[in-house]
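WARN no homologs supplied; continuing
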Amino acid sequence: MRSLKIMLLSSAFNGLTQRAWLDLRQSGHEPSVVLFTDEATVCRQIEASAADLVICPFLKDRVPQQLWNNPQRPVVIIHPGIVGDRGASALDWAITQQVRRWGVTALQAVEEMDAGPIWSTCEFDMPADVRKSELYNGPVSDAAIYCIRDVVEKFASGFVPTPLDYTQPDIIGRLQPNMKQVDRAFSWHDCARFIKRSIDAADGQPGVLASLAGGQYYLYDAHLDSRRGTPGDILAVQDDAVLVAAGDHSVWVGSLKRKAQPGDETFKLPARHVLAEQLADVPVLEGSIANQGVDVTDYQPVRYRESGHVGELTFEFYNGAMSTEQCQRLVAALRWAKARDTQVLLIRGGRGSFSNGVHLNVIQAAPVPGLEAWANIQAIDDVCQELLTARQLVISGVTGSAGAGGVMLALAADLVFARAGVVLNPHYKTMGLYGSEYWTYSLPRAVGSAIAHKLIEECLPISVFQARQWGMVQDIGPRCPHAFGSWLLQQASSALTDEKYARQRARKTNLSLEQIERCRANELAQMQLDMVENRQQFAHKCRNFVFKRKACQTPQRLMAPWALALTTTLVD
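OK structure emitted
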């Protein structure tokens, strides 16, 4: 197949768009990104381009008629629903209605939304008790990549898409209305599983609006618990979550967003932070791993188990953000795990992102955001220090995508194993930061100085396959989360004797504490300028991220050379 010039039209350069961009490049094509800013700009960029095909992996805006009306250059929408499903709340309804099978459909843009002819579809069994973000970043993302590959192959062979025909018996999808808060509403007298499913179906955005502790909040990050109480009462606090009694049992709620008043803006924060004043008389439960068994159904952001000579420490922080307090809890857990009589320490993520570094929402909410950022970066540096100085062979299991300090945290281990399909963003500059987490030590150690400089300066995502080629990742495991967990533990069990990892094992004996502390000091000197003195507009960029400000233009780094040349010509 010849190399195609493919325009990725997207509302944001989100995880799926990044995955599509990487996959198309790996297949030999030339994808370029256009972020949907305003209709006139998008039309001008795409109409004047030499793009062969436009694919929309993640598009909240309606495709302008000027674009979809061109028969020579199809615009293909990647819709997160089965054939016939239409509407913006596809995943919300699928989770709420507990469908057994779901899928992704690639369809051509036409005047009526999601009603165009079908290019490709891919179905999957719906996971049980799945939250929307987990569904989107897992099975939906996998099916979308299949459809994008299929569309590209079919386009190259002159394929004519199939019109949507609801008279066909196998077309079971239907137009679904946009889900409103009234459709998500629950009572605290309802059963805990129903409440959790309602919150899961709104995970990420928009959350479920509910009454709690005398106020109105959007709820996120739900976990079941067996304790009982008066429905609606807060029974306990643990780490960042509050335990709320339901009709039968109870539900942990990890994150909240206060309902905004007119002219006000609010954002998600850990539930304990939001309700701080109302929790004075609520019992606080001990969250130490030393006193817990492992039960994946419980609310356990940090949990530990042992298998032979391997100690496995799992940390699961919502959206991969790590606040100062979360880092401090993780440091305490690591110190306890390091004192155990084990030979291998396996640290791994949970269901969502592995880690995205410091907690920008908590930073933004602080009385002095720059000082909270400064405390946060030192706390996550402490986590990395515990990994670098461990007696055991340390292995990172990258279970989900990682960015900035989260990538560098993984690299503080001796070996890194990653799940297939994971996307890494090993850079800081887009947030106006120099970076820390010992990156000036760990990244060159893994890939060499030249590649380290390239990664930090280009600010582009990389696949785990690229990361393995460069030495950031030692091996790649199965895409299925459960299969990856089993594979990861097997790899950890054999890592001490496997000759493939002899070089990484030998690095532990050559570790220079003086060198790593010098790296930390130099990094923090730069980060103080960025976080406290706002050298590179970190405060402004952090605020834009937290309040989800729409991009004003597509960054040049996301444009292919052919599209960048065109843009320069248009500007001139």
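The chain is about 35% helix and 20% strand.
OK
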